[in-house]
Amino acid sequence: MFNRSRCLRHVVAIASMSLVAGCGVLSGGGADDKGPIVVGTTSAPSTLDPAASWDQSWELFRNIYQTLLSYPDGATTPQPDAAESCRFTDSSNTVYSCELRSGLTFSDGHKLDAQAVKYSIDRIRKIDVNGGPVGLLGSLERVQAVGSREVVFHLNKPDATFPFVLATPAMSIVDPDDYPADALRKDGKVLGSGPYRLESYQEGKEAVLVANDRYKGLAKPLNKAVTIRYYQDSGPMVRELRAKKIDVAFRGLTADDIVSFQRSDSKDFQLIEGTGTEINYLVFNPKDPWAAKPAVRRAVAQVVDRAAIAHKVYKDTVEPLYSMVPAGLTGHTTGFFDQYGDPDVAKARKILTAAGITQKVPLTLWYTSDRYGSETAKEFKELKRQLEASGLFTITLKSRPWKTYVSGYQKGEYPVFGRGWFPDFPDAENFIAPFVGRQNALGTPYPASRITDDLLPRSRRESDRAEVVKEFEEAQKVLVDDARLLPLWQGKQYVAASEDISGAERALDPSTIMLMWELHRKTSW
């Protein structure tokens, strides 16, 4: 850590801990004398419509829209937000009812009632965007509005995780008068009921948020306005942070940035480190003639050196990952290490020759050029080096900006492509279910009936998630055998901020989404 001066000299700021107080007076949420807090990130939204997004557009959604449930500071289980109360009303976890707070409105004063909630969920299913959030609603049979304040969700099978789904920003409540029922909104505007309203938006550049005076919910905003600036590369973002042109930098910090901020001479800044469940992985497209071959996928899995990627590219700011379920969650395994062990070219060659493949395998690996930070390009160059050094592969690297990148993988254009994943909710299911089935977050159908028809339904009957470890372990064995998804590393969360900013250590929810309302300036020391 750095910023060791004054009373923070020996304090390590961790996201799950509260900031140590006792060294001056911190602001209580009044107006910021220096204007809006400015947050920089390399993670720009791909859309402003919740019905289209199953990605980091959620970062913005959480702050401008509202969901029935969300996560108050420090909570890991969903709590009522737009709702006053929510519960399963039966013993089999198939009927879930929520009672809305009274007097809810959207930021323009339009009434937010049970019909608006039903409309919002129904339109997700009706529009059915490929790779969109409809995949989260596989257990939903129908939504019922009872009067003006009660919403009842009837499920087609037991699903103890359904409250977690309702807490995702995908289930943001929209105004039926402003969002078409059968098409996405495309005018670049937003109407929500969250802590902020979107005053202005420049795609890929900036989102200006101001406090929504009509908001009623869990959040207790500590600032009046936040401006989010979007960068394509971490370099300009960090330079503007050091020049005090922005106050906070989040997502996209490189290993070099983190190491630099950790030095004791970075006295005007603070680095907040949080345990993270972010994962990075490769996806193999079965439409490609080479990636479709199990032997090719398994040979890649046998050659890839995760530890080298973590050390050489990320300077040990990430950890090698051998399971789609990250360490720290119940159900985590080391399945890929158990099956493949350390990188071994001889074993990989044996896998290929046993399948009758004796030539060098040509593969094109795709990555996004502006989503996860500038180190992504270095990571894929290292993957290319490793695979070609084995003498078994010929690798071509290609990249696109995120918005066109998403369109490409949803159309099945990429033989092998990289993705990052920040959890929708803190449960092992959310690192398995989103990637399998006909509709999934990848836009690449992955039929896995053993998982979708047996293991996941079994796990969803159990409210005590510690009791479903066996199901998650078996599901991960299927993923390892198929090797269609290849986990590479697990990251931590880092936030860099000017020393006069407080609240960043409380601003990350269990999905590592930044709750902008927790940020505020220290009024004095």
Automatic annotation (TrEMBL):
<dbReference type="GO" id="GO:0015833">
    <property type="term" value="P:peptide transport"/>
</dbReference>
<dbReference type="GO" id="GO:0043190">
    <property type="term" value="C:ATP-binding cassette (ABC) transporter complex"/>
</dbReference>
<dbReference type="GO" id="GO:0030313">
    <property type="term" value="C:cell envelope"/>
</dbReference>
<feature type="signal peptide">
    <location>
        <begin position="1"/>
        <end position="21"/>
    </location>
</feature>
<dbReference type="InterPro" id="IPR000914">
    <property type="entry name" value="SBP_5_dom"/>
</dbReference>
<protein>
    <submittedName>
        <fullName>Solute-binding transport lipoprotein</fullName>
    </submittedName>
</protein>
<dbReference type="GO" id="GO:1904680">
    <property type="term" value="F:peptide transmembrane transporter activity"/>
</dbReference>
<feature type="domain" description="Solute-binding protein family 5">
    <location>
        <begin position="77"/>
        <end position="440"/>
    </location>
</feature>
<keyword id="KW-0813">Transport</keyword>
<dbReference type="GO" id="GO:0042597">
    <property type="term" value="C:periplasmic space"/>
</dbReference>
<keyword id="KW-0449">Lipoprotein</keyword>
<keyword id="KW-0732">Signal</keyword>
<dbReference type="InterPro" id="IPR039424">
    <property type="entry name" value="SBP_5"/>
</dbReference>
<dbReference type="Pfam" id="PF00496">
    <property type="entry name" value="SBP_bac_5"/>
</dbReference>
<dbReference type="InterPro" id="IPR030678">
    <property type="entry name" value="Peptide/Ni-bd"/>
</dbReference>
<comment type="similarity">
    <text>Belongs to the bacterial solute-binding protein 5 family.</text>
</comment>
